[in-house]
Amino acid sequence: MACNIDHTLEDVEKKLASQSDYVPVDLYRSSVNFLKGDPNQEELNELFHLLKKYDLASEEEKLERDKKISALTR
Fold first, then answer.
1. Cβ–Cβ under 8 Å, residues 35 and 12
2. What is the pTM of this model?
3. In terms of C-beta distances under 8 Å and separation of at least 24 residues, what long-range contacts does 62-68 make, across chains too?
4. Which residue in 13, 43, 47, 70 has a CA-CA distance of 20 to 30 Å to 6?
5. Overall domain count for the chain
6. Is 3 inside any structural domain?
């Protein structure tokens, strides 16, 4: 899922907010806390892409993304 665009903290916060109704509450909270902790550019990009179109992902895909978000944000 390589991307040439560096997403800003604000981009990622907006993406998280737009997907907040779909992301499990515990992962939403850990993501919010993670973003307060000065993540690096690679981490911002990774979280952005895990959240991108989360609402449209299959249940299986959501479970896979949930694992990755959990690993990234804890």
1. yes
2. 0.93
3. 62/22, 66/24, 66/27
4. 70
5. 1
6. no
Alpha helices, H only, the chain: 9-18, 25-36, 41-51, 59-73
* Residue 29, domain extent: 9-73
Q: What is the pLDDT of residues 43-71, one digit of tens each?
A: 999 999 999 999 999 999 999 999 999 99
Give the dihedral sign, CA 64/30/4/57.
Answer: positive
At 5 the pLDDT is 87
Question: Distance between CA 13 and CA 58 in Å, rounded?
Answer: 23
Model confidence pLDDT, tens digit, residues 10-25:
999 999 999 999 999 9
Predicted local confidence at residue 20, as pLDDT: 97
What's at 42, amino acid-wise? E
Specify the residue for token string 């990774």: 46
**What six digits make up the tokens of 69?**
């978000």
